[in-house]
């Protein structure tokens, strides 16, 4: 096998991007885990696979695999890199790109300054849609984790997220609470765990312990989920600057309808796996 790929990142959340439109690609969870290894492989948080669409109203199908080899429904930073990838590789000429993902349809727009805006669709908050085990829908749920009770919000933005408000994101116990939340019994498909510090009504700081990866330098869907949680709880305005360890994203959500995310997408190098 000889496979061309591009290494990219969105605020340090890094990706191996593979063109499955012009190349035949055969993947397995074992192979992805091996390539994701930062010492013995290429090293990445997610592998992104560009495929032809399965429906006529879409330009591409966008598939996402975590570093542990699991296929997931959505990846916000990946979506921005995906848009730059298909444009730079001339797989499309339009700067507005319509993609299908396992988590729903997305619309991506490459801006004149090179940043990418992604219409991430509507958030879902009904427990069965997250999925999260609870009798009724609520903006905050009490949940027992490692002998303490945390107050969390549960949101699906194509993929499942739980968001915990903390006083100081730098001292938040992400290493201990992250894995316990990721595999919590009330999240039957596991979950991405975000820790959000509210600076003021339009600025937050966020760290995310990602399902299937661990803590990453940035998580686009995590930023969207945190802003939705903040708006639903009355803590945030509708346009919010989210500071992650790897940099900043702008998220807009009007309290209903679709979420918009804007941020950079960076190409690092081209490689070939043989
Ligand atoms: N890094 C991503 C999210 C990737 C998928 C996630 N780990 C999951 O399992 O759902 C982002 O930028 O959104």
From TrEMBL:
Enzyme class: isomerase
Family named by the database record: Belongs to the diaminopimelate epimerase family.
Metabolic or biological pathway: Amino-acid biosynthesis; L-lysine biosynthesis via DAP pathway; DL-2,6-diaminopimelate from LL-2,6-diaminopimelate: step 1/1
GO-annotated molecular function: diaminopimelate epimerase activity
Active site, renumbered: 75, 219
UniProt-annotated location(s): Cytoplasm
Keywords linked to the UniProt accession: Amino-acid biosynthesis, Cytoplasm, Isomerase, Lysine biosynthesis
GO-annotated cellular components: cytosol
Protein name: Diaminopimelate epimerase
Protein purpose: Catalyzes the stereoinversion of LL-2,6-diaminopimelate (L,L-DAP) to meso-diaminopimelate (meso-DAP), a precursor of L-lysine and an essential component of the bacterial peptidoglycan.
HAMAP family: DAP_epimerase
Any Pfam family the entry gives: DAP_epimerase
Sites where the protein binds substrate: 13, 46, 66, 76-77, 159, 192, 210-211, 220-221
Reactions accelerated catalytically: (2S,6S)-2,6-diaminopimelate = meso-2,6-diaminopimelate
Sites annotated Important for dimerization: 269
Site (Could be important to modulate the pK values of the two catalytic cysteine residues): 161, 210
EC number(s) recorded for this UniProt protein: 5.1.1.7
Known partners and oligomeric status: Homodimer.
GO process terms (BP): lysine biosynthetic process via diaminopimelate
Keyword Thylakoid: no
Coiled-coil ranges (or none): none
């Amino acid at each position: 096998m000889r496979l061309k790929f591009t290494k990219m990142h969105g605020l340090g959340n890094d990706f191996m991007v593979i063109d499955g439109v012009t190349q035949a690609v055969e993947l397995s969870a074992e192979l992805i885990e091996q390539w994701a290894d930062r010492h013995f492989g290429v090293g990445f948080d997610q592998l992104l696979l560009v495929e032809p669409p399965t429906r006529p109203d879409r330009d591409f199908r966008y598939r996402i695999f975590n570093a542990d080899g699991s296929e997931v429904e959505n990846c916000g930073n990946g979506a921005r890199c995906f848009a730059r990838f298909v444009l730079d590789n001339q797989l499309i000429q339009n700067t507005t790109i319509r993609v299908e993902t396992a988590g729903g349809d997305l619309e991506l727009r490459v801006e004149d300054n090179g940043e990418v805006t992604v219409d991430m669709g509507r958030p879902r908050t009904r427990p069965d849609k997250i999925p999260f085990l609870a009798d009724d829908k609520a903006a905050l749920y009490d949940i027992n984790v490692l002998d303490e009770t945390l107050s969390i919000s549960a949101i699906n933005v194509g993929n499942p997220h739980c968001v915990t408000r903390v006083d100081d994101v730098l001292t938040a116990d992400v290493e201990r609470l992250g894995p316990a939340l990721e595999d919590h019994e009330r999240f039957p498909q596991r979950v991405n765990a975000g820790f959000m510090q509210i600076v003021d009504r339009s600025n937050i700081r966020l760290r995310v312990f990602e399902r299937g990866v661990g803590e990453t330098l940035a998580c686009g869907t995590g930023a969207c989920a945190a802003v939705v949680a903040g708006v639903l709880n009355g803590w945030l305005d509708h346009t919010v600057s989210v500071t992650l360890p790897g940099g900043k994203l702008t998220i807009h959500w009007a309290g209903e309808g679709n979420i918009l995310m804007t941020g950079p997408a960076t190409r690092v190098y081209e490689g070939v796996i043989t």
